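quick one, 250 residues, struct below
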Amino acid sequence: MDAPLAVGKGRIGALVHRLVVPGERACLPGPAWALGIYTVTLVPVLLLLTAAWFQPFVPIGELMRDSLLVAEVSDDCCHIYYGAISNIGVLLWAAATAILFFTALVVALIGGLEHRHSIVQFSLAGFLTMLLCIDDFFLVHDIILPKLGYSETLAYMVYASFAALYVWYARAEFLAARWLMFLLSVGSLALSVKIDVFMNYDNDLRLFIEDGAKLIGIAAWLSFHAEAAACTIQRLGDVGRTPADRRQFT
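---
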């Protein structure tokens, strides 16, 4: 069983080991496979944000902001690229939601009540991710709540409370997983929220940092939970296997 941190490799080596080597409870096909998950999700997002910032054809705000908000203020409505970055974020939220609920279903069908902790864990994560997806898609905290007389801060408080419940419930699993990726996700999303709440001025750099951090946070959230889902399903598949069978698989 792999130790959570490498021994005798120095701080940088230990940090890299924690990022790419399965934790004590992890049961993954290998670090290259894990890095593949992060590469497939994070690298395209970083390339997309770089291209969006340096391209000379479209104002950055028309790409980063929600398409409905862009259309309302645009003098040349409408174009298919309105809100492109925002729409990609919604798609990533939806992908993460599907993975989490599907994993909860698979664990329930294969593992039964014996694995109810994992069922609840993935259900909580799926429900939280679904709420964030709905908020992004229907502009709940931007438009709907203010029209109903509530501050958008209320939505942030609800999501933060639900996230705290989820983290507390799954704290042992987080510590045994690649928690740096989870911290990257939460930190990026928190940065986006902080800019949205406390910075009232509107310019290209502010929009890019706010929505770019949000997209990176969503991609990291998807990466972390996709790997956690694969790890959990593989552990179920390992039930009844001999150690020799597991070594052959990995």
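Confidence is low (pLDDT under 50) at residues 1-9, 20-26, 242-250.
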